[in-house]
């Protein structure tokens, strides 16, 4: 998702200022904006709209932005920026100490607000994207398995996985370090009607080892647990 499609929640009890901030952000490309004027309204809007970022005033009629921040943090890790007329160092440090992503004092320059909001969104959701991508890559020594593409990379070469090999490896990866029984693996590859596929499973495991092991005859990663099933080692050289 492009950062300009992210939903922003603005919270300020000054209606005129609230509209001004919304206009500044809209003119910079942010179209998805929701607003609230107090803590209780903000909590309701948050639950209904599920924003991707919040810009909070500190002084609110039914509490303060610090309290609102803590309530939001009970259910979400969205980035939060404080925008406040309270410019004392202790308030700024307190807000940042709570875990806020930034703190801007009023009056502020509109371009500065836009730059800070944009920087926070880029940083937060780039990291989220990288984390998601990282979770879909399995590294086994010099081999890399790219689950999204169904391929194995090794020394600059790419080898495709079959659908069954991919299903088996995903199951092993989800339970990495633990034994996955023959039945569980067969079920992952062939579904409920897997009975009779035990010998075929062994063939697929052999082919899989040829693609992910440096020496398939002496596997270091896809280990056999005799009489039970297989296990994907967490580190090279582990014993079954």
From TrEMBL:
Positions of post-translational 4-aspartylphosphate modification: 57
Gene3D superfamilies: 3.40.50.2300, 6.10.250.690, Winged helix-like DNA-binding domain superfamily/Winged helix DNA-binding domain
Superkingdom of the source species: Bacteria
Sections of the chain in a coiled coil: none
Domain OmpR/PhoB-type: 135-234
Pfam families cross-referenced by the UniProt entry: Response_reg (PF00072), Trans_reg_C (PF00486)
InterPro entries per UniProt: CheY-like_superfamily (IPR011006), OmpR/PhoB-type_DNA-bd (IPR001867), Sig_transdc_resp-reg_C-effctor (IPR016032), Sig_transdc_resp-reg_receiver (IPR001789), WalR-like (IPR039420), WH-like_DNA-bd_sf (IPR036388)
DNA-binding annotation, residue ranges on this chain: 135-234
Keywords: DNA-binding, Phosphoprotein, Transcription, Transcription regulation, Two-component regulatory system
GO molecular function: DNA binding
Residue intervals of the Response regulatory domain: 7-121
The UniProt record lists the keyword Oxidoreductase: no
Stated role: May play the central regulatory role in sporulation. It may be an element of the effector pathway responsible for the activation of sporulation genes in response to nutritional stress. Spo0A may act in concert with spo0H (a sigma factor) to control the expression of some genes that are critical to the sporulation process.
The protein's name in its UniProt record: Stage 0 sporulation protein A homolog
